[in-house]
Design brief:
This protein is mainly alpha-helical and 690 residues long. It has 29 helices and no strands. The chain has helices at residues 21-26, 28-43, 48-74, 85-96, 111-124, 126-148, 153-167, 169-174, 184-208, 234-254, 277-313, 320-329, 336-348, 367-382, 384-397, 404-414, 416-419, 426-450, 455-458, 462-474, 491-502, 506-514, 519-523, 533-559, 561-565, 573-584, 606-620, 638-650, 658-689. The longest helix is centred in the middle third of the chain and has 37 residues, at 277-313. The two termini are 58 Å apart.
């Protein structure tokens, strides 16, 4: 019998209670009852995706009212009276989703409205939202832990002790060893019995494992069947591969798991297999501490980059040549310091919005500002998973493996997707880095080659042209920053940019899907048969994306039919498709209009802007993990418990009723507390002896 969590796309059958439509119409009261039940149990149930979407919608609506009210009170009259609400809503949605499309020039709105947009950029960017998810999961973990141990006086005391230790680390280090009252003899006997069973299970698996010998004379049965090349001869291959095999063997021997006291067994996704009850308890404590360490690292990561950007950029923009460029490019009351800080925010958040109406076009020769902006763009979004793993790896190399911090860092490196959405294993991180760099280099080369003969690009000095091409390629897929108008570029390059914006999130999304701890269940594959997972993920993502973009393009073309028919300035089928793709990819690039600096969306009718809002919101959520993903499930949730049972080697056990789940959860909660307190006590005792 298949697990109720198994979902096979394309083979789903309607539930047994669904009847023939004619029969349903004959009993309207029953139909109404079924409909209400469906809405209550399916539609109104919050999951990660719906909660994420609800958070964005509420913040956008509230902030749009604030921006609109500020415009009524102190706003400029340059917008045919006052800033319309649809434009306030569009700006807030664009900022919150870090899209970067703007229907009005940001230089014409008040400083307070600009500040609101800066706040929205920060609280809506990927790093902040994912950090908030870690904080929420850690809070629910602690809440669930308290709920499970209310019956245990010792466990309640342990929770209070943990809270005291976390609030005052200096006192925790000086604290004595904490002891638990219990039957030590029974505990030791249970532990010995568990170890004995585990050894028997491991020996049985080793005995049942098939022995596979690789034949040395199979060249005629592979490839084209030709004679072997010199490098394919056995002795040559053994000689060349010896250093690599020795290095791999040394790495396997050196690979340790200091965060647990037992011998661990993983599958190809780093999942723990065949854990007994005591081992699961200990693992829960380690994972809880790792989440706390990760939370501090994420907060420090964001503060560090924002502080570095502010320190480097804000004083620099007060230089005389920069101030002259700002005042000449945009006459008015633009403060250099506020401009520099806003650039830091929009760069790290990949927001695309700029207080300069012409974006970075007036600063296309200023290498320093563009370099700082490019580094912030890379660190804040496209290379965020790479930088985060590099930071954790660096900390692990400078920290003792026997310390609590070292064990937490090791756990994060070995099991990243158990704890965080955008932290991947080593192999996937290298793949992601390679793909990201390859795409950027391709766009850079295309910029230099395809723009040969284009007047706006040929007018640039060679060194400026090469550097600006690299800057444009770096921020193409997410930031929306640009140093030249899109209509000045070669048509073929615009098509390349369109494709790059369409696949902007694919590298990270595919890494998310492939490293999902529950990947087989999430896409409907049998366990152990996930070879086609990447292709299936890719097809599903393409199907998820393309129909919505095409439908939105179709609707906007209907609404803007008159402007398309008369060939109004800036309007064409391609320019609208470019705008929709940029919105869905949360990029922010636009072909714009010739008579102003705002995006093409600024010339849309109100209904088209509403359609664009839907595109932006859906595009911001396209890169979220699947519903069955351990990095977003709430600790203690029934679904998470069932999936952990299955992948820990207990999937064949059918006793998954709520009473047993509750009992097992209580025991696990007490074990987690026991592990945390024992380790903290051992640490305090060791320091006291020193």
């Amino acid at each position: 019998m298949k697990s109720p969590l198994t979902i096979f796309p394309g083979t789903m059958r309607p539930p047994a209670h669904i009847q023939d439509p004619v029969e349903v119409l004959k009993h309207p009261k029953e139909a109404k009852k079924h409909f209400i039940t469906y809405v209550r149990e399916e539609v109104l149930v919050l999951n990660f995706y719906r909660t994420h979407m609800l958070y964005f919608i509420i913040v956008i609506l509230v902030s749009s009212v604030i921006v609109y009210g500020e415009g009524l009170a102190n706003g400029s009259t340059e917008f045919d009276g006052r800033l319309r609400y649809i434009d306030c809503l569009f700006l807030c949605c664009s900022a919150m989703t870090t899209t970067g499309l703007n229907t009005v020039n940001l230089g014409n709105i008040t400083a307070f409205q600009q500040a609101v947009l800066a706040v929205l950029l920060f609280i809506g960017n990927v790093t902040f939202v994912s950090t908030f998810v870690v904080l929420i999961r850690r809070h629910f973990f602690r809440s669930k832990l308290k709920e499970m141990v209310t019956h245990s006086r010792a466990a309640r005391q342990a929770v209070e002790d943990i809270e005291k230790q976390e609030s005052n680390k200096s006192q925790a280090k000086k604290g004595g060893e904490m002891t638990w009252k219990g039957n030590t003899t029974a505990h030791n006997s249970d532990n010995q019995r568990d170890q004995h069973l585990r050894k028997r299970r491991a020996c049985k698996e080793e005995d049942e494992a098939p022995m596979i010998k690789k034949s040395a004379n199979v060249h005629h049965q592979s490839g084209l069947g030709t004679f072997p090349a010199p490098w394919e001869i056995g002795i040559v291959r053994r000689f060349v591969s010896y250093p690599f095999r020795k290095l791999a063997r040394d790495r396997r021997q050196k690979k340790q798991h200091p965060y647990v006291s037992f011998d661990v067994k993983f599958d190809n996704r780093g999942r723990f297999h065949a854990l007994d009850e005591m081992e699961r308890r200990e693992l829960g404590g380690v994972e809880y501490r790792a989440r706390g360490t990760l939370l501090y690292i994420l907060c420090a990561y964001q503060i560090l980059w924002l502080a570095l950007g502010t320190v480097f950029l804000v004083p620099y923009v007060y230089r005389r040549e920069v101030v002259e460029i700002l005042h000449s490019a945009q006459p008015g009351n633009l403060k250099p310091g506020w401009f520099g800080f806003f650039v830091v925010i929009t760069g790290f958040c990949n927001g695309g919005l700029n207080l300069l109406n012409a974006n970075f076009i007036p600063l296309y020769k200023n290498y320093f500002i563009l370099i700082v902006e490019a580094v912030l763009t890379v660190a804040g979004n496209t290379q965020f998973p790479i930088f985060l793993r590099l930071l954790i790896w660096t900390l692990s190399k400078t920290t003792s493996q026997n310390s609590s911090l070292g064990q937490s860092l090791a756990f994060l490196l070995h099991h990243p997707r158990r704890c965080f959405i955008y932290l991947f294993p080593s192999k996937e991180t290298w793949y992601l880095l390679t793909i990201q760099i390859s795409i950027d280099l391709t766009m850079w080369v295309l910029f230099e080659i395809l723009n040969i003969g284009m007047p706006a690009v040929d007018a640039m000095p060679t060194n400026v042209r090469v550097f600006d091409g690299l800057f444009q390629a770096t921020g193409l897929r997410t930031s929306g920053a640009y140093i030249i108008t899109m209509t000045s570029l070669a048509p073929a390059l615009l098509i390349a940019y369109l494709i790059a914006m369409y696949i902007s999130s694919f590298p990270i999304v595919m890494a998310l899907r492939q490293t999902n701890t529950y990947e087989e269940r999430s896409i409907g594959l049998d366990k152990g048969n996930s070879s086609g997972g990447l292709g299936l993920h890719l097809k599903r993502q393409l199907a998820y994306d393309i129909w919505f973009q095409m439908f939105a393009w179709f609707l906007i073309c209907i609404v803007e039919r008159h402007k398309l028919v008369i060939n109004q300035d800036g309007f064409s089928m391609f320019s609208i498709l470019f705008e929709v793709t940029s919105a869905y990819g949360t990029v922010g690039l636009s072909t714009g209009v010739s008579y102003d600096n705002y995006s093409l969306s600024g010339a849309f009718q109100t209904l088209s802007k509403v359609i664009m809002l839907a595109v932006i919101l859906r595009g911001r959520h396209k890169g979220l993990p699947l519903a069955i993903d351990r990095s977003i499930l709430i600790p203690g949730e029934d679904l998470m418990h069932k999936m952990d049972q299955e992948y820990n080697g207990y999937g064949d056990q059918k006793s998954s009723n709520k009473e047993r789940i509750s009992a097992q959860g209580t025991e696990a909660g007490e074990g987690i507390l026991e592990d945390i307190n024992n380790r903290e006590g051992d640490k305090g005792s060791a320091e006291s002896e020193e």
